[in-house]
Write the structure tokens for this entry.
Amino acid sequence: MSATTYSSIPGAAKNETVAQRLSNRRRRSDTIVKYLCILATLIGLVMLASILFTLLVKGVGGLSLSVFTTMTKPPGSGGGLLNAILGTLIQTVIGTAVGTPIGLMVGTYLAEYGQGSKIADIVRFVSDILLSAPSILIGLFVYQFLVEPVGGFSGIAGSLALAIIVIPIVVRTTEDMLHLIPATLREAAIGLGAPKWKMITLICYRSAKEGIVTGVLLAIARIAGETAPLLFTSLGNSSALGGMGSPMASLPVAIYQYAGSAFEDWVQLAWVGALLITVGVLTINILARFALRGKR
């Protein structure tokens, strides 16, 4: 037996050939999937670059100081987007400020307190429905329960609609990030005598802060460009900013109204508004990334 080589054993050469074929097949499959992923990445980058390039080409030409200092005026009067910019900032800030704490608390409950609870399952199911629901349905909901009973459109209704959009995004992100924290960190804090609320705030939130902040930024990026909910809630104001109790201007609604206009200066303002929203969202994301990286 000692003089017998492995290749002389009956069936050994055949098994070796089959194994080699399987190995080659796996390598080919891996190579194909790798290049398909690269191709998909390139397609996505090209599409993103084309969108940004179009916004720059169409929008930069209309940028001027009057865009940021002048209210919207009739066509040919040299108006700007000051009222729309301020309206977007106000409604986005209020919507984020209202929706983020609620989403954070609900996500914390689902991850830390509601494990195995039927109530938690129902809340998670409703949150997932809201996350995937078209934003126009949220606008219709707020219109039905706030705008119509009050008898008029308002910035409050627009901010509430945006807050409802923020909540499920923050809920899902917070729950997922808290689930990624090792149980040993929780056990160590509780073993030292820390109450559960302190363990969550000092250990879990600090460990998951980057993911939670990313979820909040995603929510801001979404509501900053929402048009449909605002059409049913704050409506827009083409001549002034408008108060919280009256129709309020916003960039998405202004873009919607001006993009299909027959006047060239209004179409140019629509491109400028789209560029401002894109640059604003990118700036917020970049600044937050650098701020979190510096505290790491």
Observations:
- The longest helix spans residues 12-60.
- The domain at 65-294 is CATH 1.10.3720.10 (MetI-like fold).
- The chain has a mean pLDDT of 89.
- Residues 55 and 275 are 6 Å apart (CA to CA).
